[in-house]
Amino acid sequence: MFIHLLFYLCKKNIEMRVRDVDKEKLVIATAIDQIVEEGFQGFSMNKLAKACSISVGTLYIYYKDKDDLIQKIGAIIALKFFTGTIKNFSPTMTFEEGLWKQWENRADFTMKYPKEVAFFEIVKHSPHGEAILDSIKEFSDFRQIMKEFIENGLRNKEIVPLTFEVFWSIAYGPLYTLLNLHTEGKSMGGKPFTLTKEMMQEAFKATIKALKP
Amino acid sequence: METNLDTIHIFKTNIGDQDPNCPVRQKLNAHSDIQQWSIDCDDVDCVLRVVSETLMPETIIDMITEFGHECQELD
């Protein structure tokens, strides 16, 4: 009797679909690779399933369609980015200290996850961008933290008042330009390029100088 | 709450019609045992995905073929 019950339970367990975390990770990593290499147009659920050696049916268990997959992966990356960006950061830091922490965190993320960053760049400029950000509840917290940080800087007269977009482009533009060169591995004229901490500090000094009253 | 994976059924179909009011879509919409469904018209297999705690795959296949569409379960 007991043996029968055990056999029944084992059989049922085998038949049940179990979430395979490793396979999910493989699907996400492969989808990022394919989209970064071929863009949205060349990407398909069939191609992805084949590259992961799983059946198309299994892929559709997890995702409704290509758009759903892109949005879900985008949300995972965005959340990872927000979490990484505010690590050891507080909006009550002095402006200079806080912005440097932002630079360090953003540079760490870009250097650690270049493919995810490239994927997010593609997605950000597509209609999926807004849908992804709206789907992450942590995004509003992140925005609030960054807003508070700028407001504190203004209140404490650590920065000059600027149009938001102008502020952002001065505060982060130099960093992202350098990070792009680093990711490409070359600068103007094809000269090999690696971003160092010293160069980041050099750029940061100039940035702070531009933003100070 | 996360969907129980065993309640998700995946089918290969030939429902290329994107009209939201086509009979098969109306039937899926109106079915009380279907919690969620979608068709990926962009895919070559026009994959139908149905979330239902009670319906068996065979029942869903009958429902689709009744409208003259092809439908077979995807593993």
Would you give an account of this structure?
The complex is a heterodimer of chains A (213) and B (75). By secondary structure, chain A is mainly alpha-helical. Chain A folds into 2 domains: 20-63, Homeodomain-like (Arc Repressor Mutant, subunit A, Orthogonal Bundle), CATH 1.10.10.60; 71-213, Tetracycline Repressor, domain 2 (Orthogonal Bundle). In chain A, 74% of the residues lie in helices and 0% in strands. Chain A is built from 11 helices and no strands. Chain A has helices at 2-15, 21-38, 45-51, 56-62, 66-85, 95-112, 114-124, 128-135, 138-155, 164-184, 197-211. In chain A, α3 (45-51) crosses α4, α5 (66-85) crosses α7 (114-124) and α10 (164-184) runs antiparallel to α11. Chain A is globular and about 60 Å long. The model of chain A is unreliable at 8-14 (pLDDT under 50). Chain B is α+β, with helices and mostly antiparallel strands. Chain B has one domain (5-73): 2-Layer Sandwich (Alpha-Beta Plaits). In chain B, 23% of the residues lie in helices and 25% in strands. Chain B is built from 2 helices and 4 strands. Chain B has helices at 23-30, 57-65, and strands spanning 8-13, 36-40, 47-51, 71-73. Chain B has a 4-stranded antiparallel β-sheet with strand order 2-3-1-4, with helices on one face. In chain B, β2 (36-40) and β3 (47-51) form a beta hairpin. The model of chain B has no long low-confidence stretch (mean pLDDT 91). The A-B interface holds A 16-19, 44-46, 55-58, 60-61, 64-66 and B 5-6, 8, 10, 38, 40, 42-45, 47, 49, 73-75.
Give a short summary of the structure.
Chain A is mainly alpha-helical and about 210 residues long. Chain A is built from 11 helices and no strands. Helices cover about 25% and strands about 25% of the residues of chain B.
The percentage helix of chain B is 10-25%
Q: How many domain units of chain B?
A: 1
Provide the spatial order of strands within the biggest beta sheet of chain B: 2-3-1-4
Largest sheet of chain B: 4 strands, antiparallel
Distance between the termini of chain A: 83 Å
The CATH class of chain B is identified as Alpha Beta
Assign the structural class of chain B, choosing from mainly alpha, mainly beta, alpha/beta, alpha+beta, or little secondary structure: alpha+beta
CATH architecture of the largest domain in chain A: Orthogonal Bundle
Order of helices and strands of chain B: EHEEHE
**% residues in beta strands of chain B:** 25-35%
Mean pLDDT rating of chain B? 91
